[in-house]
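Sequence in, structure out. Go.
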Amino acid sequence: MTADDSFGRLDDDDYPAYTMGRAAEMLGTTQGFLRAIGEARLITPLRSAGGHRRYSRYQLRVAARARELVDNGTPH
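Output:
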């Protein structure tokens, strides 16, 4: 995949464009929260070639909803 191909994929909701740190920052949560919902299999982040978790926009929406439910007292 070339750089131009990668740039074009940014419109794809399933493209894993966000690192764990950036995803946590965007959601206003911790990296531990993202790991926990991954372990619970609510979302399954893809892995970079180096083994780092990468999240798509769709996964971030699911994570944001999970965070909202936790904040409102829904048991996990």
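Check: The mean pLDDT is 89. The two ends are 39 Å apart (CA to CA).
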